[in-house]
Amino acid sequence: MPCLNEEETLGICIKKAQSFLNTNAVSGEIIIADNGSTDQSIAIAKSLDARVVPVEQKGYGNALKGGINAAHGTYVIMADADDSYDFEALLPFLEKLREGYDLVMGNRFKGGIEKGAMPFLHKYLGNPVLSFIGRLFFNIKIGDFHCGLRGFSKAAFLQMNLKTTGMEFASEMIVKSKLNKLSITEVPTKLHKDGRSRPPHLNTWTDGWRHLRFLLLYSPKWLFLYPSLILLFFGILASIALIIKPIAIDTVFFDVHTLLYTSSMALIGFQFLVFYALTKIFAVENGLLPKSNRYNSMFKYLNLERGLIIGALLLTLGIVLSFKGLFFWESVDFGSLDTSKTLRLIIPAVFTILSGIQIILFSLFFSILSLKSKD
After folding, report:
1. Using an 8 Å Cβ cutoff, are 21 and 9 in contact?
2. Helix (H) or strand (E) holding 150
3. Pick from 133, 211, 295, 369: most CB atoms within 10 A?
4. Average pLDDT, stretch 365-370?
5. DSSP 98-109
6. What is the pLDDT of residues 261-301, one digit of tens each?
7. What angle do CA 107, 108, 109 make, to 5 degrees?
8. pTM beyond 0.85, yes or no
9. How far apart are CA 355 and CA 312, in angstroms?
10. Closest among 88, 95, 100, 85 to 153, alpha carbons compared
C-alpha cells in the first residue's frame, strides 16, 4: 500500500489484509510504502506488525516501486490505503495469478461503483476515454486502465522495467506488460467510497493529462506515423493534381495558392515521419520500449548511403527546376510573371529542395543513432 498521511484508514486496510491472509491460509506480508508521512501512519503500521518501507523520492509511482522492489513474495497485490478497495476480497486476484497470468487488473465498472465513490468526470469522461485510448493504441483487452487494485508476479514486474514516477505509473504498468508480451486479465472489483475526511491526492486534470501524455508518447505510431501517412497521402495527391492544372468545383477555384498549402501539408507529413523514426529509436535505445524484429530490420533498409543518395537526387531535382524557372523568368527579361504558371514550377522546386535537405540531415543523424544500436 502506498502511503502518504493515511492515518484515518490505514489501520482498517491493514486489518482487512491480515484477515484475508489468515482466512485463506496465504503466506504473505503487508508492506506500507511510506512516501514521507508526517501523521501517525508509520506508528499505526508498525503497531499492526506491517512492514514499513520508507521511500524518499516523492510520487505515487516512486512509492509503489519502492514497496514492490522490497517485497519478498512471489506475487504482489497493490492498492491504495484509503479503504476504497476491500482487502478481504483479494482471492480472485490470487487465483488468476496462480493460474499463470502475469498481471491481473481490477475492473470497477464490472464490479460496481458505490455512490459517491468516483467523481462524475472520472466515471463518465476521464476513465472511459483514457481506457478507450489505451485499448485503441495498444490493443489491450482491459476495460478499466486506472483501477488502483491489481496483482502481478514479482518476476513480471521486474520485466516491465517501469520508469514513470507519478500517477501515470498505473498506465505504464499495463502498457509495458503488453509490450513485453506478458499475459493480462481482469476481475470485477467493487469500488467503495473513500474512507478519509480529506480530499484525495489525485488531481483530476493534471493527472489525467499525465496519463494521456504517457499513452501518446509510448505510441509513436499514433502520435507521429499515422498522422504522417494521412498528411503525405492527401498532400502529395492534391499537389500532383494542382501541378497538372487548376481544379474547379462549381464556383470554387483551386490554383497555386492551394498548391502552396498542399505541398506544405506533404512536407509536414514528412516531418512527422522523421519524428516517428527518431522517437522510436530513442525510446527503444533508452529502454522505454522493447526491441522487436521490425526495429532491428529498420537499420538494414534505412542507412546513411541510401539516405544520402535519395536526398541528393531530390535536391538535384529541386535545383534543376529552380534553374528552369530562372530561365523562364529570363525569357521575359526578368519582368512580371504569370504566377499561375511559374508557381507550378517553383513550389515543387522548393518542396524537393527542402525534402532533399531533410532526408540528408535525417540520414546523418540516423546513422549516429544506429551506431549505438549496433554497439
Report:
1. no
2. strand 150-153
3. 211
4. 76
5. HHT-SEEEEEHH
6. 999 999 999 999 988 888 887 777 766 677 767 776 666 67
7. 95
8. no
9. 10
10. 100
CA atoms within a 13 Å half-sphere pointing along the CA-CB vector of 130: 28
Question: Residue ranges of the domains in the chain?
Answer: 2-217, 220-374
C-alpha cell at 135: 485499448
pLDDT at site 370: 66
Tally Cβ neighbours within 10 Å of residue 112: 12
* Residue among 296, 297, 280 nearest 288 (CA): 280
pLDDT at 161 exceeding the cut of 70: yes
Q: Are 191 and 113 in contact (CB under 8 A)?
A: yes
Instruction: Assess contact for 104 and 110: CB atoms under 8 A.
Output: no
Q: What is the CA radius of gyration of the chain?
A: 28
Measured CA to CA, the distance from residue 119 to residue 110 in angstroms comes to: 17
Q: Cα-flanking dihedrals φ and ψ of residue 76, to 5°?
A: -130, 135
232 conformational bin, left if phi > 0, alpha if psi -120 to 50, beta if neither? alpha
String of DSSP letters for 159-176: HH-----STTHHHHHHHH
Which residue is listed with cell 517501469?
A: 162
Q: Where residue 338 falls among pLDDT bands split at 50, 70, 90? A: confident
- CATH code for the structural domain at 2-217: 3.90.550.10
What is the pLDDT at residue 371?
Answer: 66
Q: What is the pLDDT of residue 82?
A: 92
- What mean pLDDT is predicted for residues 172-181? 91
